Amino acid sequence: MARTRFRNDRGLTARMGVVATLLVVLYLGVTAGLVVALPQYSVLIALIAIGLGWAQWYYSDKVAVRVMRAREVTAEQAPELHAVIDRLVALADMPKPRVAVSDTDLPNAFATGRSPSHSVVCVTTGLLRRLDADEVEAVLAHELSHVAHRDVSVMTVASTLGVLAGLIMRWGLFFGGGGRDRNNAVVFIAVWVASIAVYAISFLLTRALSRYRELSADRAAAYLTGRPSALASALTKISGDIARIPSRDLRAAEPMNAFFIAPALSGRSVGALFSTHPPLEQRLAQLAQVSTDLGRPTG
Q1: H/E element holding 72?
Q2: Of 52, 68, 232, 246, which residue is least crowded by CB atoms under 10 Å?
Q3: Which of 72, 143, 214, 281 does the annotation list as catalytic?
């Protein structure tokens, strides 16, 4: 974590390290297996894997802004929004990220980027219309916590590895599916099955990390602002209003689901394993506990 006044979260740091390590090992393992199975394409596979991975990590902030059809705004274009972020970054003692606004009725916000110095915080016009000043500040504090804790960077890498594992499955099918040699076919099938397993494992690992990091950001934002009730109110409003957004708009925003403060789409049929966010009830209960802690006299 970068040195800021946001509360340090050792649990988050440990989870980020474990998830990142496991995903890198899994991805390198299946890539190596594919290279062994298809040596004639080894250079091409390695170049594409490295190139795509680097590009998605390096340009993650720009890609996210483009997916949400957002635009970066200056202090002259959005003075009130910049004023809130200026106040929060001064309070947290951290670099100021770039600021973007997405013109959509979906009430949400997200932060992304490869480092605190190369990050962007984006809010939607739907969120700005629905929340009052204290609630907007609480949401922005939550997003800035993601930047300060660097979990945005880890989630970007984790998402990249999941995407690349899926691409490896397609490469293996395209390049190796037509081989006539029985031994090569056996190796190809083994690598392809392994790549499917990597994709599934990376999916579950990123979901688990995503749920924990949302709770961590809620805590950090509540302690920094000293107003957990504002964040609780914002989460309640956002979650309630998202249910009234047309399904078409929700599906369009789904690629950014893991980065939003509240999920645009949430699966309930298979339980919490596939959810990117913890239940609203759990988040509100945690904020109530923070409120109790803040109300206690200091020793």
Answers
A1: strand 70-72
A2: 246
A3: 143
158 alpha carbon, distance to own chain's centre: 9
Give the CA dihedral 83, 89, 93, 95, nearest 10 degrees. -110
Can you read off the two tokens belonging to residue 237?
């409003």
Contacts of residue 133, Cβ cutoff 8 Å, sequence gap at least 6: 84
CA distance 2 to 68: 27
Domain presence at residue 192: yes
Segment among 45-49, 89-93, 138-142 with least mean pLDDT:
45-49
User: What total of structural domains would you count in the chain?
Assistant: 1
* Cα 36 from Cα 54, distance rounded (Å): 23
Q: How far is CA 141 from the centre of its chain?
A: 16
In the block, tokens 């009725």 appear at 105
Say if strands 118-124 and 109-115 run parallel, antiparallel, or are unpaired: antiparallel
Res 172 pLDDT > 90: no
Tokens of 291: 């409120």
With a cut of 80, say whether residue 199 has pLDDT above it: no
Asked whether the beta carbons of 259 and 110 are under 8 A apart, the reply is yes
**Domain containing residue 27:** 10-293
Would you say residue 1 lies in a domain? Answer: no
| Cα torsion through 171, 173, 175, 180, rounded to 10 | 160
Most confident option among 25-29, 97-101, 174-178, 181-185: 97-101
Q: Does 76 participate in catalysis according to the annotation?
A: no
CA 233 to CA 15: how far, in whole Å?
28
Residue 4 lies in a domain: no
